[in-house]
Structure formats: structure tokens, C-alpha cells
Fold each of these.
Amino acid sequence: MRAVTVLGGGIVGLTLARELRRRGIEVDLLDSRSVGTGATGASTGILTPPQHARTPFYQLRTRAWQMWPEYAATLSAESGIDVGYLRCGAIDIRERTIRNPQRELRKLRDSGGRVEVLTRDQIRQLLPDLVRSPEAGLLVEMEARIDPLATIEALRRSCHGAGVNIRENLGPIRIEPIGDGGITLVATAGIELSQPSEQRSVILAAGWESVSAALAVAPSPLPLEPVPGEAITLDLAAPAHLVHFNLLRDGFRDPSGNRSIYSWIPAPGGGSWLGNSVASGNRVEQTVGDPSSDAVAPTAEGRDELVEVARSIFGEDVESRITGHRAGIRPKATRHGGPLLGRWPGRPQLWVATGHYRAGLLIGPVTATMVVDSMLDGSPIPEEFQLPC
Ligand SMILES: Cc1cc2nc3c(=O)[nH]c(=O)nc-3n(C[C@H](O)[C@H](O)[C@H](O)COP(=O)(O)OP(=O)(O)OC[C@H]3O[C@@H](n4cnc5c(N)ncnc54)[C@H](O)[C@@H]3O)c2cc1C
């Protein structure tokens, strides 16, 4: 193989393109919109280390957490853009932590850093602007954040510098099966694309929209579910730590069965972000929107939810402090085990890297290395991540 076409310019596609180019492969990166306008551009950049390493997915997360400090430094140096890696730690004040902080503390004993129970007074001292008074929480040393938009720009610049051919705003690109195991790429009329061959493979890394891109290729559809998420920007001073809350909200329906967790995040530039871990499922149709549009549109319902949560945390006046709002669709793999990585069954020129759900910023770079190692050196990808036949 001499060349690869990467479909999708989120964190996954860009890290794949960079890694392939560094290993001497000719790379075209094609995006139906602008690079970074998918889930990656909407994300809040939290890097959470796993609580154990007993499954392949948690081992992957461990590798990812360990790799980020050096990865951020290398990327910042090679692009000249600071990707905003900050190991700021977190204050965790979810309901279950409040109910039994010692139990939660025990769960985090392998997190690799200090974990302490915080009393009500300590929380008040650390977070004086809160109108709520949680009875207990945890201070967790090992959590970090990056700046997702700066990371996208750094990756774009690094890819450009290395000679990746980035083509944007091409409209949706589809993969069609041909013959007994071949594939072809189909774009909007008039756009010329290099076609897959023995020398050129394709990696499908189009986030949630990988489903529609490969709908014609069996086994289809990809086992992916869209999970919308939204975040607002606040001109409230950045907290020193990430702060995680969970709130029981009337009428909240979580399609994934999770409790809704909200995070208050130190944003680059001194402000802060408030984002949800999952948004209610009926927002998918509104937010998936038109594939030819520039980006997923934030919803009025999403804003109302975040305003309600912000008021309960910061007080009634907080709405006037909102300066931005964004939304994205997280690609959640519906089979157990983590992201979908590896060669497409029965189509040797086609590879896939998607399904990173809520951890794409954390694990995107490590999954890129895993896929490229497999493509170029034949290194095995754990069965848990491979596409089910
Ligand atoms: C509100 C929110 C907060 C989040 N916070 C975090 C966090 O704190 N930490 C974390 O680790 N993760 C977080 N995530 C999850 C993370 O954003 C995703 O896991 C990750 O961005 C997925 O990256 P991706 O490259 O697979 O997809 P995307 O970023 O969605 O990129 C896919 C790209 O493919 C392009 N595309 C689509 N269709 C085609 C096609 N047919 N052909 C070519 N290109 C195509 C799109 O235009 C897009 O640019 C968050 C997500 C959201 C929505």
C-alpha cells in the first residue's frame, strides 16, 4: 500500500492522516464539510483517566491517558499552536459521591494520583460562586483538558506541513461496493477522487455519519448510535479544576441509560464551558440536520436544559453570561467493547475508525496509532474493537 484516503476530518481522521504521513504514506483527507465541524469541534476536551485496566477498552484508555502529555507537547511544537493540555484535576460532586464518598474514593485508588474526600466547607472554599451547597465531593488529581479547536488547528497545520492533501466542503462522500470485494468512492457530481486500488486503501472515519457513508456496503448498517451533546460558553471565570455534577431533572429521558452528568470546564482564554454528558434522544433528528449544512445546529431545547442546570448551579442571573452554544453528535458503538476499529469484513481496501462516543478526544490519537500499525505492519487489533461480521 502506498496511499490512503481518509474520509472525515475530526480528531480521528486528522490523527490517522498525520500518523500515516509520518510513516511515509501518501494521504488524501476528504471532508464533506470543513475539518473540525463534527463532534470534535463541539466537544469540551476533557481527558479522564480510566479507573482500572481490566478490559481492552480500559487498557486503551490507559494508554491514551499516558500518551497525551507527550503527544500534546509534540503537536504544539510541530504546529506552533498550543493545544491547551492542562492537568487541572477535577472536583466530583455527583449524587453517588455525596451519598458514599469513601466508596467512590476506593474506586479511584488506581487512578494514578491523589484522591481526597472534600467536605461541604472545603467545596465552598474551592467553589465560592456555587449557589448549591453539596455535602461532599472528591478532589481527583488525575484529570486534564485540552482545547479541542486549537487541537484541530494544530493537527490541520501539522498535516499540511507533512504533505497531507486536505480537501474540504466536498459534500457527502459514499462508499459503494464493486465486484467481489472491491469498493469505489462516490462524491457529488463533478468532484474527482482518487479511487481505491491495491495501492490505495480507504479509512472511514466520519464519526456518526460513517453509517450513511457506508450504507451500501455489507455488513451494514454499522453498529453505531447517535448521541447528541451540547455545551454553552459562559463568561464566568474558569474554575481551577474541572467540576462534575449530576442532577436529577424532571422529565429527563436518557436514551443510553446513563444519569445526566454536567461538567463545568475551564475554557481556554479564561472563561468556562458547561456541557452535558448526554442529551435527550429526540434531539437527534433536529441536530443531525442536513449533511450539506456547515455543522450540527444547537437546539433551543438543548439551551433550555443547560440554562436550567446553570441556574441551579450559579443562580438566576447566569443566562446573561452565556456567550456561545454548540452541539455535536457523538458516535456510540452499540456493540459492547469500545470503538470500531480495523478492516471491513470482506472488503480488504476498506478500514474503519469510529464509535469513539464520549472519549474521542482522549482515545482518538491512540486508536490512530493502533489502526496504522495494523495497516502497515499487520499488528493485531483486539477482537473487541473489530467490526462484527
Ligand atoms: C458536546 C460534546 C462534548 C464532548 N466532550 C468530550 C470530552 O470532553 N472528551 C472527549 O474525549 N470526547 C468528548 N466528546 C466526544 C468527542 O467529541 C467524539 O468522540 C469525537 O469528536 C469523535 O471524533 P470523530 O473524528 O470520530 O468524529 P467527528 O469529529 O464528528 O468528525 C467527523 C468528520 O467527518 C466528516 N464527514 C461526515 N460524513 C462524511 C463523509 N461521508 N465523507 C467525508 N467526511 C464526512 C464531518 O464533516 C466531520 O468533520 C464530546 C462530544 C460532544 C458532542
Amino acid sequence: MVNGLEIQNLLGQMVEIPSESTHEERISEFLGDSLSSKSLRVGHHRFNTYATIGSNQLDAATLLFVSHIDTVATTPSWTIDPYKPTIKDGRMYGLGSNDAKASIAAMVHALLDVNNSDLPEQLARKNQAITFIAAAEEEIAGWNGFRGMVDQFQNIKAAVIGEPTSLRIGNSQRGREVIDFTTHGRSSHSSRPYEGVNAATKLVEELGNIFSWYQELFADNTDAPTLEVTILKSGEKTNQLPYEALATLDSRTTAQFSGALILATMDQQKLYPDTNIVGREQNSVVAKFTPESSPLIIAVKRILEESGVNPVTYAYTAASDLVFVPSDAQGIVLGPGDSNQSHQANESVNLNQVITAQKVYSGIMRGFKL
Ligand SMILES: [Zn+2]
């Protein structure tokens, strides 16, 4: 049994340590020291700290628990000290209290709880492992965070991402594709347009064509990928036909309509063979979806019910590390706290929910069959 006061104290200690994205060194060390003092196997990857129970083989079947230690910056709207944890009416106030140090505190104590049982030995015997990762740079989707280290786990079966979901199960998250659309023409004086080819006119035609295709396909689809023009560039002079025109489109993709599919369809639909349509690889994120029928969700629903929480699944709409979980692994977002509190001045979290979250995480560690 874990004492609720210990979870609360750990959360308070973490709130006291400033940990804005890319400045997670201190909190990462603090967590590493606390976990190794409880005789857990601890590793570091830059400012990510992780601890494993069970098998230490690289190919161990692994259940991941991931949450983030970085916070956004504080703003002038804060009327209390963001780094002084304060408890009032059962809530803890402070920067990151809700997003996502509450999840970290609950996961740490869940791991310590199951570490004091015969579970580590059972896991080791079957070449299975449970790894908790306190990740950096989630708020900026940085390469020094979870996405940059996930490859070192060769056999991830499932992942639970701790973010404020009010203990609902987020089982999908959209991906992203940033698409550069370039049309080509030939410059000429605008009084003699027959001597040139207007790239801007071609771009307008291409975009008109793409958006009528998009509207036709997704007219009645409530789960359509979004598609928005965010940048338009062409021309420099009022009397000159532009030789090139560029539109950048931002699409929030779904598991069904991936960025790759949208790019391929656009390429088929284009009106001019010399129009270039390219996805920006560095911005590309693949959507994640784990069906209700997956063993992870079935197990988590049962464990939530046993903990007195109504099990609900929903589409998670904020950002999280879920999209960096490998495509062949099951993944959900589940954590204490309310997403409305995230990134807000005087952020706070309901402490009872943090304590319930620890029980739920412990339950998943014990009850999910790898
Ligand atoms: Zn978060």
C-alpha cells in the first residue's frame, strides 16, 4: 500500500524544481537519485530518466509508462508563486502540478509499489519488463525527449502516457503533415501575359482543385483530417508574372487518413505535372489509434472499474508523446488532472485523483498481461 502523503510530497518536491523545456537537468537528477535510492535500475538519456523492473535484456517484451517532467514557461498572469506548492481544498497549486508532474508522482509510486512484490522476478523469468520514463521536452516535441530515445526499447508491447485526462482513456491522437505545394511558370511583363506562364494562377487552380476534392471526400465525415493553408507566397512586383508560387498546408491527420495517403492522393489529383508536392519530414507525425478491442484497453477498463472510476475512452486532442509510441505497440493517454488546467496561470490538480491514478497505474502494472 502506498501512502497518499508520500505521493503528495513527491509532487510538491517536483513543483519546487523549475523544469521548463530543455532545462530539465535538475529534476531529472532528482528523480534518478530518488529512484536509485529505492534500489531501482535507473538509466539516463540526456535529461530523460528511466527505471526498469523485470528483465534487463534488450529484447524484453516491455510495457512503458511515460510522462513528462518539463513544463511550459510561467506567465505574468500567475498570482501565486509557481514554484511554491500550495495545497487548498484538496488541490495542489504550482507550475506543472497538473501537467504532468501529477502523472510522474503517481507513476513513480506505482513502480515503487510493484517493485516491493514478486512481480519483478516474475517478469524477469518471462523476459518481460516494465519501464517508467520521466521524459524531457514533451512540450516542444523535442528530439531530446521521448521521441529521441524510444528506439532503444526494441520490443515495446504497450505504452501508457501520463497526461491530464481526468483518468479517461485517450485512445487516439492526431498526427500532422506539413505540405509544401510549389507551382512553376515563366516570368513576363503583366502587359504581355502571353509571353509567360503565371505560377500564381496555377497555384490558385491547384488549390481550388485540392479543396473541392477534400470537401467532396470528407463532407459528412466528423473524423476528417483537417487541411488548412497557412502560408502563401508568390510574386514581387505589381507588373510581373511570378515564375514560382508556394502554398504551405497544415493537415492534422488521422489513423485512417495518414499524411502519406493525403500526399499520395494530392499527387494523383494535381493539374500540372510540374507542380511539386512535398511533405516536410521534420514536421511529420503519424496519428496513433488503439482500438477498444485491444488487450490494453480491455485491461485498463477493468482496472479503472475496480478503482471506482467510470471507464471512458475518447479521442485525445492535445499534444502528447503517444504519437511517438511505435505503430505496432498499443498505446493510450491516461492520467490524473484536468487538461483545462494545463498551461494556465495558477495551475492546480485534485490530489485525490493523483492518489487514485497511482492505484490505477499499479493495477495496470500487475494486471496487464504482456
Ligand atoms: Zn503535458
